[in-house]
DNA sequence: ATGAAAGCGCTAACAA
DNA sequence: TTGTTAGCGCTTTCAT
């Protein structure tokens, strides 16, 4: 037997009060006498009444829904991030409506329309680059938006990232201090600000020491492409091989390590040092034991949610760009000192 | 400058038609003349009008929102599943509202209330066991619900799982055919039907050959606990060690392999064969090269969505339990024949 | 095919 | 503090 949904009207009748009294009892910060409150609560629980969020959203203009736009999330650190995001928002009375956007530009546009149709109170764009055109549309629609793990120059939009530039630089200094002399880089997808900033910091760090970048490959943040880039980088004469490789994220770093060990019989870090970026859980697994720059996911999430909710709740907050610094986590995949 | 939202009324005025005409133009399967349709579309696009999903949901009773309940999703194959689920639903005009439920019973209850408040058209419970009490509440509330990757005996609720029993059995037969004689099992969280079914199939498979289970540990689907269980299983005399271990999922199997190799110096599969379950992407990585039972995620998702939408769209569909069989993927972590 | 009118379930003035 | 009243933006009869 499927029960129809109970309305506030029905509760009101049973409690012998007006419908608005019921509404007030269920509206935080509204005024109702103890007597009324009690009568209403009793009737409501007898009937199994719960307020209808959608109706509430429509009249109040606040849906308590946050639209989350994500690109396809196959790799890396998203599951964790998504979980924390959702959990953090849930604690603060919001829920996440998920929208998947293929990287093709048109798709992101359509998706944005769908999002706005749902009257979301805010948008989090995770690992998706919004064109400045889209940023504008969000502003025009009056929907606060925060970019997570992507940033944009000249943007009037808030963004939270790890300090990718500083992280990349840190890696360069570390590898140089370890006595490496032929230092290479394997890049992620070049359209991503994370990739660009990590590489920029890294190259500037090498430059600090007057060292050129020894070799460069592109893995597009994908496992198989990283393997291919590795093979190519290590295809020539042994003298032409790097003695250290900084890989733009952990996921690709695993591919690099596997390829180097399984196909070339190299030992890490004796023959070559590897450093990654993200510190995903698998980086700590004994098979990889990867030295890597940690993304402080927890703090990034918290900042994202704080900024978004403050933009939602206090109007007229100015957009802000937050970069969260993370430590280089030393493990066994990179040697620390000159001697082999 | 934030533009206020355009209403159908405003479009109607500009197009010189009634508000209901506008509604019809945007309602699939409603009747409007070509002339009207054209005028309305023109006015709408000039104004940037889009129907308000929430208002539509309220009056029509269909929100086109699916509530997805997930437990914390740290491990294994959820990112992929979540993505496919969301993508599949999005293609069919629905969106996913995410609800995180800690495994504690009370929490799942609260979460269910929140879900129902949003007038979702359906619920997918992914890897969460709903008590029969909760199943009842969903039925009473008239909200179709499908369990994904969990099943329940005596349940009036639809469920989609892989054929865990058959999978476990397949592993037993495979290990026996490979000439293993001391076959052990490392269990996941015992509250999960996936764990129970995999183990039941496995043990029945051993029994088919008259072989007892040689040893058993519990890893609760967690990396560190699996490591601990491994150390304990391999702590005594060398004669007391298994020559094959079936691990209830891949995530734990990686922990087992790492522990065996790094701490005990064993070689896989020469000293011991390892078989996992799920076939997550990392199972194919060279460092693990794990023989494992594949979960056909894609098909499971498709079945889940099909069942859910058919329950939503055609009333009076009977609940059904679907088990999707997956192959044993042979890789290098388990030897195939008797000789070492 | 179209317009007028009646709500969907709720919140938020406004009076009392 | 409470009840009355007016909508939120839309779909859906019901006439025309």
pLDDT averaged residue by residue of chain A: 91
Overall number of strands of chain A: 12
Strand content of chain A: 15-25%
The CATH class label of the largest domain in chain A is Alpha Beta
Principal-axes shape call of chain A: elongated
Corresponding CATH superfamily of the largest domain in chain A: Response regulator
- End-to-end separation of chain A: 75 Å
Class per helix and strand makeup of chain A = alpha/beta
Task: Identify the biggest protein-protein contact and residues per side.
Answer: A-B, 56 and 56 residues
Provide the spatial order of strands within the biggest beta sheet of chain A.
Answer: 2-1-3-4-5-11
Quick structural gist:
In chain A, strand 3, helix 7 (132-141) and strand 4 (145-148) form a beta-alpha-beta unit. The first copy, chain A, is built from 12 helices and 12 strands. Chain A is an alpha/beta fold and 340 residues long.
What does this structure look like?
Two copies of one chain form a homodimer. The first copy, chain A, has 340 residues and is of the alpha/beta class. Chain A has three domains: 8-51, no CATH class; 65-162 and 296-324, Response regulator (Rossmann fold), CATH 3.40.50; 164-295, Response regulator (Rossmann fold, 3-Layer(aba) Sandwich), CATH 3.40.50.2300. Helix content of chain A is 43%, strand content 16%. The first copy, chain A, has helices spanning 8-15, 19-25, 34-47, 53-60, 78-91, 105-117, 132-141, 164-177, 193-208, 223-233, 250-264, 297-313, and strands spanning 65-70, 95-100, 122-126, 145-148, 158-162, 183-187, 215-218, 244-247, 273-278, 291-294, 321-324, 328-329. A six-stranded parallel β-sheet of chain A has the order 2-1-3-4-5-11, sandwiched between helices. The first copy, chain A, has a six-stranded mixed β-sheet with strand order 7-6-8-9-10-12, with helices on both faces. In chain A, helix 1 packs across helix 3 (34-47), helix 8 runs parallel beside helix 9 and helix 10 packs across helix 11. The longest helix of chain A is centred in the C-terminal third of the chain and has 17 residues, at 297-313. The model of chain A has no long low-confidence stretch (mean pLDDT 91). Chains A and B meet through helix 4, helix 5, strand 2, helix 6 and helix 7 of A and helix 4, helix 5, strand 2, helix 6 and helix 7 of B. Chain B binds a DNA duplex (16 and 16 nucleotides) through helix 2 and helix 4.
